[in-house]
Amino acid sequence: MKVLIVYRTRYGATSSCARRLSERLRAQSVVVDLATSRPPSAKEFDAVLIGGSIYGGKVQREVPSFCEREQRALQERPVGLFLCCLLGGERAEAQLRASFPDWLTAHAFQTAVFGGILEPRKLRLLDRLLVASVAPPRRIISRIDAAAIDRMADALSALIGG
């Protein structure tokens, strides 16, 4: 079985989650950052996992663009959706639903919020100013939910028999 994992990250948390997801799968996987590479067609894979991070209240535009471009292929295979953000609970779930097309969210075998990381020293100047206006972090905030990543990997492995 072959699995495509595509994602878009701003500061690296989503990339870390995508790599962990790939390592946990019991299948061959290809991991592609939509910011730096054009992904292969979803038609070439048995399943697709799509993720993004929230920036300015929205997922990066490359994520829904990929979904629309690959709509037909995505509707024909198992798809999992994940989001990285620091919010939790219903607010995070609402952002997840808003980040992907309705047809894809309804089709997905699983959706998950993997949490997020805020590293003040990595922030660009404008981002640093925006964050400081709300609550200036003095140290790294890490809220990655490794168990959520593992659950998605296990669910996909069970689904495709990997």
What structural keywords apply?
two-stranded antiparallel sheet; Rossmann fold; alpha/beta; 7 helices
Describe this structure in words.
The chain is of the alpha/beta class and about 160 residues long. The chain has a single domain (about 1-160), classed as Rossmann fold (3-Layer(aba) Sandwich), CATH 3.40.50. The protein has 7 helices and 8 strands. The protein has helices spanning about 15-25, 60-70, 70-75, 90-100, 100-105, 125-135, 145-160, and strands at about 1-5, 30-35, 45-55, 60, 80-85, 110-115, 115-120, 140. Strands 1, 2, 3, 4, 5 and 6 form a 6-stranded mixed β-sheet that branches. Strands 7-8 form a two-stranded antiparallel ribbon. Helix 1 (about 15-25) links the parallel strand 1 and strand 2 (about 30-35). The protein is globular and about 45 Å long. The termini are close together. The model has no long low-confidence stretch (mean pLDDT about 85).
Structure in a nutshell:
It contains seven helices and eight strands. The protein has 162 residues and is α/β, with parallel strands linked by helices.
Gap between N and C termini: 7 Å
Helix segment tally: 7
Low-confidence stretches: none
The string of secondary-structure elements, in order, is EHEEEHHEHHEEHEH
CATH superfamily: Flavodoxin domain
Q: Mean of residue pLDDT?
A: 85
How many domain regions?
1
